[in-house]
Design brief:
Layout (H helix, E strand, L loop, with lengths): L2 H9 L16 E5 L2 E2 L7 E8 L2 E12 L2 H4 L11 E8 L14 E3 L6 H10 L18 H29 L4 H13 L1 H12 L4 H6 L4 H11 L10 H17 L20 H15 L3 H6 L3 H8 L2 E2 L6 E3 L2 E2 L5 E2 L2 H23 L4 H7 L8 H9 L7 H15 L8 H8 L4
Parallel strand pairs: 4-5, 5-6
Antiparallel strand pairs: 1-3, 2-3, 3-4, 7-10, 8-9
Helix pairs in contact: 3-17, 4-13, 4-16, 5-6, 5-13, 8-9, 8-10, 13-14
């Protein structure tokens, strides 16, 4: 039994009204269950309840047991003095306000609709399941599903905005520096994301900005800070980069303390750190200032154009220093750019729009024009409900659903979980 279930019962009044009396035997008539508060303080604000014929206006607190009132130390918290009803699953003791007046208690254990209780217990049954409602997932209405996914999508964007806000604060509101750090993390993908982020944070972005039009210098900075220019190679291009980095290192007093060295192990050659860092350097040397272009881009195609780069010259025949192969095209693929747009650019635009108080609907529209990601989570939901993930909007929402609702058993804070409880219940 979770308190969330009792919140659901109270919010939607899923109990036998005719038997609703306080533990002292006074009749309870609920005129307004109140506003569900998910922050600190009582669980429901501004409720209107008749107790023994007397109308009361105030707050409602919900616990599994009456004694939880004292376990949570509410008896010494004045913010709970306006509680007019204590709703519990099991009443095991009287509870009092700070002025020692008794708070009326409603015990739900014997008056909750049996069907609701059975469905709740089935929903959270301890048996191996990918998600709790998987047997009913395909039955959820398509319109309601889309509505809930849109809300989950915005929740995910808001969560990603927290990292952006943190980076913005550390960079003294330099949006260019923040975008550079986010792009670095994105180009590192899952394996080297943290490494690339540490590289981007190991020097002041103004250094990158001053040398932005010189690709060799940008590569030297990134490779050098990554610790990839510390070996001895006869490779001429490697020696050129190393010499350039030593000069820049001395000029800007660069150090790479705290940098996480990137990994090559089990990566496809196209994802080798040197290739991804070289592509990142080329984007900046080709494009210059990126923030303005990213923010003002009117559609997906325009954004794709910013990140479409092809490595030439030395990198056309190398995946790493000193190891030559037959010439091969090394472009940022559309699939890779889609991941950058989904995980970096759209959240960045969302955060930027929110910061300026602008509408974020355009960013939602962009996400609806990018194909859904392909991973085990999306495959799992698609197996339960084919066609549920067409665009990046749906796939991002489903990732949020799985991580922050399903995996945490937050079924009663989820539209699907509440819909499940209401199915076939009178």
């Amino acid at each position: 039994m979770q308190e969330d279930f009792l919140h659901y019962i109270w919010k939607f009044q899923k109990y036998n009204f005719t038997n609703a009396v306080t533990t002292a035997g006074e009749e309870i008539v609920v005129e307004d269950a109140g506003y569900h508060n998910r922050l600190s303080g009582p669980d429901f604000f501004n409720s209107r309840i008749r107790i023994g014929g007397q109308l009361w206006a105030g707050n409602v607190e919900i616990h599994l047991k009456s004694s939880d009132w004292y376990a949570h130390k509410h008896e010494s918290d004045e913010s709970y003095d306006n509680v007019i009803l204590h709703v519990v699953w099991q009443h095991d003791m009287e509870i009092y306000r700070t002025n020692n007046s008794v708070i009326p208690t409603l015990e739900l254990k014997h008056i909750v609709h049996l069907e609701i209780l059975e469905k709740y217990e089935l929903l959270l049954a301890r048996e191996p399941r990918w998600i709790n409602c998987e047997n009913s997932f395909a039955q959820f209405d398509n319109f309601e599903t889309l509505h809930w996914l849109e809300r989950l999508y915005f929740e995910r964007m808001e969560q990603k905005s927290l990292l952006i806000s943190e980076l913005l604060q550390k960079s003294e509101n330099d949006w260019e520096a923040v975008l550079f750090q986010l792009l670095a993390k994105g180009f590192g993908l899952n394996v080297n994301g943290d490494s690339f982020l540490s590289i981007s944070q190991s020097f002041n972005f103004t250094i990158f900005r001053r040398n932005q039009l010189e690709n060799l210098k940008l590569q030297a900075i990134l490779f050098g800070q990554a610790g990839l220019l510390e070996e001895e190679h006869e490779d001429i291009y490697y020696q050129k980069l190393k010499k350039e980095f030593k000069y820049l290192q001395y000029k800007y007093r660069l150090t790479n303390d705290g940098v996480i060295k990137p990994k090559f192990f089990r990566l496809r050659p196209d994802n080798f750190p040197v290739i991804r860092l070289a592509q990142l350097a080329k984007i900046y040397s080709d494009t210059g200032s990126i923030v303005e272009k990213v923010i003002n881009a009117s559609g997906v195609e325009e954004l794709l154009g910013i990140f479409e780069v092809e490595l030439k010259d030395y990198w056309k025949s190398h995946y790493n220093f000193g190891k030559e192969h037959l010439p091969r095209k090394k472009r940022t693929t559309k699939a890779f750019i889609d991941l950058i747009l989904i995980n970096i650019i759209i959240p960045f635009r969302f955060a930027y729009s929110s910061y300026l108080g602008r509408s974020v609907e355009t960013d939602l529209e962009l996400s609806e024009k990018i194909p859904a990601e392909k991973n085990s989570v999306i495959s799992g939901f698609t197996a339960l409900k084919p066609g549920i993930a067409v665009s990046a909007m749906e796939s991002q929402a489903l990732l949020e659903l799985k991580k922050n609702y399903c995996d945490l058993n937050r079924c009663l804070q989820c539209e699907f979980g509440m819909k499940y409880l209401q199915q076939n219940v009178k």
